[in-house]
Design goal:
Blueprint lengths: L6 H17 L16 H16 L18 H14 L7 H14 L2 H7 L10 E4 L15 E4 L3 E8 L10 E7 L10 E7 L5 E6 L8 E12 L3 E2 L5 H18 L3 H14 L1 E2 L2 E2 L4 H29 L7 H24 L17 H9 L9 H11 L7
Parallel strand pairs: 1-4
Antiparallel strand pairs: 2-3, 3-7, 4-5, 5-8, 6-7, 9-10
Length: 395
């Protein structure tokens, strides 16, 4: 691809960069770390930033104009993310609604569903999560046991979902459930929209090693869901879910600039001592960080290959799985090496007095494993690459 941006694209970049410089929260820390996002106070703080982006016309820029977006080109979307990364901007609060639920409803929703739900997603007026994974089934998404019994004008749902990110803050959830158990597992599934305030729903936190609980388990006990909340056709929910997953793996696969992490690791190496000298002066340390930088550059250009396919109107290729696998593995290796550099200081908890960089590296290390599981585990990505790229037989 041509790596030069047009004058129009560069003007778009400078417009957004100038807006960020004027509007970025002044209390957002330079290293991009912030207080615990699981608290209500912090969530509302981030929602205020989300709303500022929305009010400024900088939310959901990739959405069509008819749905409140800018109809931004793929290159403008790339520039938008680059500038957010460059500014180390706070995260938004309705990521799943924006990246997955909204686009899925645009493709599969009825006119009534589009009118009711889509307008309240960009503003974060209504927060969304997604109910896909279930206990005991790992990454086998089609092995759904949550049942939805058709009662004529409504469904009655019983079962549970797990690893449901953001459910404790969400107003609504998508829900993949089984409506005909007599059919093969990829059939007989339906895709519903559920108001999480409905009686019979219980949300329980799953505490992570970091002490946070971004994940939850959601229980459904005789939950009534109106028939009007069925997305697509009954028993054809697998196709809707695959649309959702296509958006999810694209997002997880290619939007993180790992060079940011590598540069921060290099700065850490200049702070800590190794054999009486700054660790950065050690050839082994520079070699390892250089290796990480090379991998990060390779991943960046792999993401550009994926972008090139989209610009040419081609179907998504294996780059999404390669990016997801490569990015999560690289992140894990960077955090492990940070622990090696820190030595005894790696035992300090996040924000502990005396911790180097306020203990952010130990926090990141504990959090790194989840990226190897989310959006299809790395084992699943290995299978996809082996079968679809290398032509290996199914295991």
């Amino acid at each position: 691809m041509d790596f030069k941006f047009s004058a129009e694209d560069e003007a778009f970049r400078m417009e957004f960069r100038a807006w960020l410089e004027r509007n970025m929260p002044r209390d957002w820390r330079d290293d991009g770390e912030m207080a615990d996002p699981e608290t209500k106070t912090e969530f509302e703080r981030r929602r205020a930033w989300h709303r500022k982006l929305y009010d400024g016309g900088w939310m959901c820029i990739h959405w069509p104009k008819e749905y409140g977006g800018r109809g931004a080109t793929l290159l403008q979307q790339l520039i938008y993310q680059q500038e957010l990364d460059r500014a180390k901007a706070p995260p938004v609060v309705n990521f799943q609604g924006i990246a997955r639920v909204g686009p899925t409803l645009m493709q599969w929703g009825t006119p009534e569903q589009k009118k009711r739900y889509i307008p309240k997603i960009p503003s974060a007026e209504e927060i969304w999560c997604q109910g896909l994974s279930e206990p005991n089934h790992g990454s086998d998404l089609a092995a759904v046991e949550t049942r939805a019994e058709d009662m004529g004008d409504h469904f009655v749902v019983n079962g549970s979902k797990i690893w449901t990110s953001n459910a404790h803050h969400a107003d609504f959830s998508t829900l993949l459930c089984r409506t005909d158990p007599s059919l093969p597992k990829h059939k007989g599934l339906s895709y519903l929209l559920v108001d999480l305030r409905t009686p019979g729903i219980t949300i329980r936190p799953l505490i992570q090693m970091t002490g946070e609980h971004g994940f939850n388990q959601v229980f459904y006990e005789d939950v009534i869901v109106p028939k009007a909340n069925l997305v697509g056709q009954k028993n054809q929910g697998w196709m809707v879910a695959m649309t959702n997953m296509m958006f999810e793996r694209t997002i997880h696969g290619g939007r993180t600039d790992m060079l940011v992490e590598v540069r921060q690791l290099a700065e850490l190496a200049k702070q800590v001592m190794r054999n009486g000298r700054p660790a950065w002066e050690d050839g082994y340390v520079r070699s390892r960080i250089g290796e990480f930088a090379c991998i990060a550059e390779g991943l960046k250009y792999t993401s550009y290959r994926q972008l090139t396919r989209q610009l040419r109107g081609l179907q998504p290729g294996p780059e999404g799985s390669v990016m997801k696998l490569g990015t999560s593995n690289l992140n894990l290796e960077i955090q492990k090496f940070a622990m090696e550099l820190l030595g005894p200081y790696s035992q300090y908890e996040y924000m502990a007095p005396g911790a180097i960089d306020r203990g952010k590296w130990s926090h990141r290390m504990l959090a790194a494993r989840r990226a190897t599981i989310a959006a299809g585990s790395n084992e699943i990505q290995h299978n996809i690459i082996g079968e679809r790229v290398l032509g290996l037989p199914k295991g």
